[in-house]
Amino acid sequence: MKTSTATADVADTSWAAVPQRSLLRRHRDFRLLFTGEVAGKYGSSVTGLALPLIAVTALHATAFEVAALTAATWLPWLLIGLPVGAWVDRLRRRTVMLASAAASLLLYLTVPVAAVLGLLSYPQLLLVALCAGTSAVFFQTAYTAYLPSLVAAADRAEGNAKLQGSASAAQIVGLGTGGALAQVFGPVDSLLANTVTFVVSLLCTGSIRQREALTPPGDRKRATLLSEVGEGLRVIARDSWLRCFMIYGALANLSLTATQSIQVVFLLGRAQLPESALGTLIGAASIGGIVGALVARRVGAALGTARALLLFLIVLPALELLVPLTGPGAGMLCYLVGAAAVSAGVVAGNVLRATFTQSYIPTELLGRITASGSFVNYSLMPLGALVGGALAGWLGVLPAMWLTCAALPLAGLTLWFSPLRRYRDLPAGSLVRAVAA
Question: pTM to 2 decimals?
C-alpha cells in the first residue's frame, strides 16, 4: 500500500468560516449527541474523583495503589486498542456507543451495591476501573469515527469545538460537585450520580435518527482482522503528519497520566484542602479547557492551524511547572494557573487535531487509524500512572510531581522538530489511499 499527502502549504479556509446559526440550534442529531456527551462526561468526572477518594478514605490505599487505579483505566488501550478500531469499522458506531455506555453504568453501580453489602474491596475497585476502561476504548473509538458521518464537513470544526468545550465544562461541574457529593453522601454513594448521567447519555444517543450506511458484506474487500489493523498502523507510520501527532500524544499522555495519578494525594497534602474543596480546585483549573475550546478556531484562523498547535501544545503546557509550587492559601494559585494553562492547551489542540484528522483520513479507514493512533497514544498511560505512583513512593510526592510535570514540555519538542514548524497551516486536502495491485 502506498500513501501520499496533500501539500501542507495550502491554507484550510474552513477554519475562518463560521455558520450564521449555531450547529446546536439547527442540527437535532448533533444536539442529542452533544447532550449525551455532556451527561456522560459529567458522570465520568464524578467517577474519576470518587474512585481515588474511595481508595484513600474507605480502603486506606497507598499512593501506588491509587495510581494503579488510573493505570487499570488505561490498560485496555494497550490490550485491545488495535483490534477495536477494525471492529468499529465493521459495526454501526452508534450501537457500539450505546452498548459501551450501558456497560459503564452497570459497572459503576456495583461499587455502592458492594458497599451496602459490606463486600467492597480494593480488588473490586481495580476490576471496575479495568472493565470501565475497556468500555471507554470502544466508546471513544466509535465516537471519534461517528461524528464525520453525522455532520457535514463544513460543520466539523464547530462540532469538535463544541464537543471539546462541553467535555471541559462537564468536567468542571463534575469535579466541583463531585467533591461536595463525596463530603455530603460519602465517596461511595456519590457514584450514584452516574445512574442518572449514563441513563441520559443512553437516551440521547438512542434517539439519534440518522443511521449509518454499512457496506453490504458481499461488497466488502475480504480482509482479516490482523490485516486491517496492520493497514491502520502502516498509514500512520508512512504519513509524517499522523506520525508526529502520534509520537507527541504518546509522550504527552505518559507525562499527564503520571501527574494525574498522584494529583489527589499531592493536593490533599500540599494544599491542605478538605475533600469537599478538592474537586472545586481541580474543577476551577479545568476552566482553561472551556477557554481553549472557545478560542481554538479563532486562533487557528488568525495564526494558522499549524502555528496555533505549536502555541497550544508547547508554550501553554510549559506553565505546568508552576504546579509543584502549590501550597496552602495563596499558593493554590500556582496550581490554578499551571493546570488551567495545560487544560486550555490540550483542549484547543484536540479541537484542531480532531478536525484535521476527520477531514484528512478517508471515512472507511477512520476507525482503524483512530484506534491505531489511540493505541500508541494511550498505551503509555498505564505505564505513566505506575511511574507516577512508583516515583511518589520512592522519592516522595513532591519530587515526583516535579519530574512528571517537567516531562510535558519536553514532549512538545517532538512537535518542534516535526513538519509542523515549517508550515502555517495543516494540510487542507485528504490523505490519498492507493493500494498496489
Answer: 0.67
